[in-house]
Amino acid sequence: MILSLRIAARFSLVVLAAAMLRAQQIPAAVVSDPPPDKTHPATMESPDIPSHGAILYSVFYLASGAGPHPTVLLIQGFPGNEKNLDLAYSMRRAGWNVLVPFYRGSWGSGGTFSFTHALEDAQAEVQFVRDPQNVNKYHIDPKRIVLVGHSFGGFTVAYVTAHDPEIFAVAMISPADLGPSTLRAQAHDPQELLARYGANASRLAGTTVQALLDEVKQNAPTWNYVDYAPALKNRPVLIVEADDRNLGDNRDLASALRKAGNARVIETHLPTDHSFSDHRIALQAIVVDWLQGLAAHK
Prior knowledge:
The structure is a single chain. By secondary structure, the protein is of the alpha/beta class. The protein has one domain: Alpha/Beta hydrolase fold, catalytic domain (Rossmann fold, 3-Layer(aba) Sandwich). It contains 12 helices and 10 strands. Strand 5 (about 70-75), helix 3 (about 85-95) and strand 6 form a beta-alpha-beta unit. The longest helix has 23 residues, at about 1-25.
């Protein structure tokens, strides 16, 4: 009798979980593994990526199946404490290769860190996944390269996509508008800005807080992602917002994209912090669902 009750209770939990999954419309790739492909299994590699004389470390999550696979370049923030690897796994389960690189001067990569170097590195990483040898080796579909970035990484992918018309689509997760946000913080609360930059710069090689601030001030007129809207108007764009200092800038970007004529911009908001700490499943669901919507367009 007790065993029967336990079985019934477990069955009820399974039914409840399935109902919740349908109600929330969470893609299967977020919560379950696909059937294994014994001929072409999912795997992971760690290629070194050359960038301006330095070697960038990276992790490449390769999807199962013969491919070619659409491929995501997943770009971290400043300094990259949150690497969004749960998101990488969900995207791979959905059939996407996911390259997770590390900027110069960060997390073991060679060279020195600067914001300019980071932008150059992301462009070098795009060239890496387009290289014919790598396209063949990693089963990449070079016509479906999508950039996804969080925080400073969100600014980075906006910048790179705006300067590269061949990138298929771009997703920005609470993207920081590097120039305007830094100048605004400098004017309103310089001590907080110094503390924040100091905590981040301590994890990076070859730079200082002052060097980074000087670099942003020098480039602020062109490091404004709202101005990139005309260059992004013909491509799918996803903006995921949080309750953080970037919210107003994110909404300004979405508005600018719509005014520029982008009919494929999706703007969504989650009531959480900058790292999406208590909304990780929701974040994965939003991004994977968006990617699956892109899959039909080649």
